[in-house]
Amino acid sequence: MAVPLPPPLNRLRAQVGAAIPSWEEVLERAGRVADEADHLNRVGARPEDGPPPPGMTASAWAVLKASATVMGGPVSLPAMVLAGRRAQRTALARIDRFDEHLQAVAEGRRSPLPAPRRSRLSSDRRIVITSDLHRCVPGRLDWPARQRTKDLSLRVMSHYAEQGWDLIENGDVEDFWLVGGSTWGAMYDVGRIAGGVGGRAADAPRRGLMAEHLDRIVDNNAALYRLLDEGFAADGRYHRTMGNHDDVYEDEQMVQHLRRHLPGTEVVDTVLLTAPERVTSRPGATGPRWGDREGLAAVDAVVAHGHLTDAWNGPGTALLGRIITWTATAFDDLPGLNGATNPLPDEEAVGRLLTGRARNRLITLDPRIGGNRRFDSLDEERLFSHLAAVATARGEAIGAVRPDGSVGWPWLLFGHTHLPMLSPLDATGSPVRYANSGTSLLDHALTSIEWDPARREPRLVVWTDEPDGPRRRELIADGAHLAVLDDA
Q1: What are 439-454's pLDDT values in tens digits?
Q2: Does residue 362 surpass a pLDDT of 70?
Q3: In sequence order, what are the beta bridge partners of 471?
Q4: Taking residues 213-237, what's their average pLDDT?
Q5: Residue 171 neighbours by CB distance under 10 Å
Q6: How many helices (H) does the chain have, and how many strands (E)?
Q7: Right CATH for 99-175+222-315+345-486 from 3.60.21.10, 3.40.720.10, 3.30.499.10, 3.10.350.10
């Protein structure tokens, strides 16, 4: 039984408690300090001169992080290699069960892989699919501003909204992995590390930090979120999947916070584009009904971010990806480097895309470490090789008969790699039923997938920022490369 404290001690405890600020108060004060410092950093900065300086706080934090990375290298590098090898074994096991995952998701059963949330969308609708938007807070890590695509994205999405398209933002939409780049970014990094050390006891403060970060991302892209709300979500035409950089949406409380900005939004792991059957069993009954054809036979396309079988960035195995991102952002903030470690596509990359020289082959990785020299970490070749082997071993067509008479697995529509693809070639030189939307972070350009409901297949398009307004071009498969068709 607790012994009651004397009244003087009770008063002292109350006074001490009142003097200690709550986490919300600490977060609010830190935010005000960060905003003032970042405002001073941006004074006199001109957009044409490139991204704003990170500021003294972020640079000092970057020096500390870089120093720790270099000094800890002899220990951390072998540990990362071992962790990467274990994660790669997990990724290979997931690839071996990916066919089961597709079947389970399509049939409404429990998947053997950690991607349980799914939704369905009629494939007779016009749907635009974007991914890897990486919206962030103001500063050097505002990648859309750095690539001059913020206004382009707004105008392109306005076009689709006015034309009545559905929109699927297919993962890595708001970025919660990028840190630094500004005073707030450095404070967010420190708070995130502290929250990780705190374990379950720090769940509430960690959610508060993430919610504040989300609010700041929305404020930094206010016009676009207003369009997403009024132009898509209000009519039930806005859909979301989760990627690795926005994996905070594993937490339903964070999804609820997202709904403050985009009411009605559900975040899932997979969206199934399903061909609706017309109900004829009852006189006068009309409208789409799901499930008239069961399983993958009813599915025209499977939309997912694509990181599920990625060893470095997959659910539960993303430690290596987080460390690489954390380290890269630190070096980007170091004084004197001036963005030398910037990983964003440049003008030359866009030039290859617009002149028919962009690669259109599946990514191949070293099976031991789950990566390659370009730091790709999604083994597309192994994944589609497995799906082909499963179909051959069963001796049956998997999926529905397509409009062109072909049969097989549904289209897989991914993002994640930042590399746009359409019917890319596998190692045998055969095209596969796969499309990748690429990214909205090209230099003055963005790529996306348009779902064609008439042909029940994807189109790959690139939008560029031209003096007379956004220009749309269609990209088509041309062997191992993508060819370009101008929009009529």
Answers
A1: 999 999 999 999 999 9
A2: yes
A3: 464
A4: 97
A5: 29
A6: 14, 17
A7: 3.60.21.10
